[in-house]
Amino acid sequence: MKIGVIGGGQLGRMLALAGTPLGMDFAFLDPAPDACAAALGKHLRADYGDQEHLRQLADQVDLVTFEFESVPAETVAFLSQFVPVYPSAEALRIARDRLFEKSMFRDLGIPTPAFADILSQADLDAAVASIGLPAVLKTRTLGYDGKGQKVLRTPEDVVGTFAELGSVPCLLEGFVPFTGEVSLVAVRARDGETRFYPLVHNTHESGILRLSVASEGHPLQSLAEDYVGRVLKQLDYVGVMAFEFFEVDGGLKANEIAPRVHNSGHWTIEGAECSQFENHLRAVAGLPLGSTAKVGQSAMLNFIGEVPAVEQVVAIDDCHLHHYGKAFKAGRKVGHATLRSNDMATLKARIAEVEALISN
Amino acid sequence: MKIGVIGGGQLGRMLALAGTPLGMDFAFLDPAPDACAAALGKHLRADYGDQEHLRQLADQVDLVTFEFESVPAETVAFLSQFVPVYPSAEALRIARDRLFEKSMFRDLGIPTPAFADILSQADLDAAVASIGLPAVLKTRTLGYDGKGQKVLRTPEDVVGTFAELGSVPCLLEGFVPFTGEVSLVAVRARDGETRFYPLVHNTHESGILRLSVASEGHPLQSLAEDYVGRVLKQLDYVGVMAFEFFEVDGGLKANEIAPRVHNSGHWTIEGAECSQFENHLRAVAGLPLGSTAKVGQSAMLNFIGEVPAVEQVVAIDDCHLHHYGKAFKAGRKVGHATLRSNDMATLKARIAEVEALISN
């Protein structure tokens, strides 16, 4: 089976590493000359709206999937004429726009922070008066890793902020006094079968995920599965989806969904019986889903800006390096390490060892 | 780091799958137009003796390794002028010739079946008189998967057999009444550090490996490690080596070594903390070795001739498919499945499920 992937970054690379043993071949459409997935498949170097190359891709593959959600709607619609596309155009339409996303959560009875649609500075002023400060103004589309957003703490922060974010449609979200951030990675098959990985505790710095630790018997697991299940069913979703939540007062408030394999699920490569990458491919290819059970205790640490010396990373016991083969650049995710241990105490000691390497 | 591999079959393919996350790039030299490792790296399509392409390979990579042992000595010698080559020319010289191999075992005090060098039918007749029947006549070089050998049971089997195997140098080996076949996969680093995976029980059919089951606390583990350690040290070996033994009377008799990653170590991809493929690359690249500890109970079943329907293989719980992307052909290894379970009873049930697929 030949899989087309829109985007050729590290997620595409890890999809190919998972899918090749299933007998799959890969083709990536990505405008970047140095797309790091290209080492593992065919690289069609073209813009995401380039219909000639999209058509070429469609002609070469059995289905198309995505490694990021900001794909133009026209691209999805165009591809869908020629080849099955998973997840669906509708799932991408919702996930790429924070207003649609939050509105869907609300309609499905999933708690969210207070939010308001912002199309002008006047909208922003009115929403701040209603929701209060602190609050976070986010562009409705194209934000990631903390980009395209601004925390508003004082009335002075509000002045001129709509223009500062580019005078594009935004969402204002009430600030949530969360005690933790967790994510649930789920996979849904074409026939509707759904499986969930254990909830993951995430730690961000400057808006970028730093550390994910897979939980064991988390008290909010079944609540999170209920919420995510509602969204998956609503969208008749096919593939892996990650759902980020804030932990607030012993409950959950929905932050956002990612309609794709997700950074907070990278630990599943070594830490779960079947990884999120393999399960995404199984789902979109119409194959039976794999086990989402944990194998021991696991954590993932991102390497941001640079990967520490390989010999130092792999010298740490039970440490699995994932080097993305990308040029190093401040703020860029260029690799990660998975730790897998038989018990949590050992895992914590190993996390400290990797953290010591990162801070050096 | 860029790794050159002589041979582009499934072993090269799995090396690339293991090495890509370490930030390694791969180039394969293989004359086959459809070399299945080529999906994961650069393919230099040339004969193994083609010095122009060998030189090209050497110029592009930081080191060269092998996925099979029948590489011409001249190829190794030629490459070694330009680039580090692991394992060494000496290790390959010994391993590719059954006489050199068995003689080394004897010199190191490692028990072997009785054996004799056979350069003519007269040699064979004399050796049969001395060693007795049954016995096995094997070509000294180029044998694999039961090819290039003949079991001699009666005096009639001996007549004309030297010519039947091509009148090439052979080894006669006394038949060993073994109770089981086990292999030990080991890895030795450039600095001499050595690690061993657990002993593996192997079942062959028609000379081809069918099933490998990783053992737990095998009573012969330390004896096997002692024997394999002697060989690794003698050869100043760098990389993964597999050592096949016969279990005889509660002890071990050496069958043969493979100076490379080995089919009986494929279970380590899911079943050990660090796979044989990653450990081979770590060793040849001068990196610290990874843990050879088992993660639960594991087994590997080969798919020979054809891979069963993918949807049936992955429908088996905890079953990991490794499809080599090769054309199906009777007697050809075209894939395998790894099973990983938390207990041996579950593992055995899963093995039966995969076996049922194979026999269908």
TrEMBL record, chains A, B:
Catalysed reaction, written as an equation: 5-amino-1-(5-phospho-beta-D-ribosyl)imidazole + hydrogencarbonate + ATP = 5-carboxyamino-1-(5-phospho-D-ribosyl)imidazole + ADP + phosphate + 2 H(+)
Check the record and name the Pfam families matching this protein: ATP-grasp, PurK_C, RS_preATP-grasp-like
One GO MF term: 5-(carboxyamino)imidazole ribonucleotide synthase activity
Tell me the enzyme class: ligase
Q: Where does ATP bind?
A: 98, 138, 143-149, 173-176, 181, 204, 255-256
As recorded in UniProt, its EC number(s) are: 6.3.4.18
Point out the coiled-coil segments of this chain: none
Which residue intervals define the domain ATP-grasp in the entry?
102-285
Q: Which UniProt keywords apply?
A: ATP-binding, Ligase, Nucleotide-binding, Purine biosynthesis
Annotated pathway: Purine metabolism; IMP biosynthesis via de novo pathway; 5-amino-1-(5-phospho-D-ribosyl)imidazole-4-carboxylate from 5-amino-1-(5-phospho-D-ribosyl)imidazole (N5-CAIR route): step 1/2
Family listed: Belongs to the PurK/PurT family.
Q: How does it assemble?
A: Homodimer.
NCBIfam families assigned: PRK06019.1-2, PRK06019.1-5, purK
Q: What does this protein do?
A: Catalyzes the ATP-dependent conversion of 5-aminoimidazole ribonucleotide (AIR) and HCO(3)(-) to N5-carboxyaminoimidazole ribonucleotide (N5-CAIR). Catalyzes the ATP-dependent conversion of 5-aminoimidazole ribonucleotide (AIR) and HCO(3)- to N5-carboxyaminoimidazole ribonucleotide (N5-CAIR).
* HAMAP family noted in UniProt: PurK (MF_01928)
UniProt protein name: N5-carboxyaminoimidazole ribonucleotide synthase
**Species name:** Pseudomonas promysalinigenes
Its gene is purK
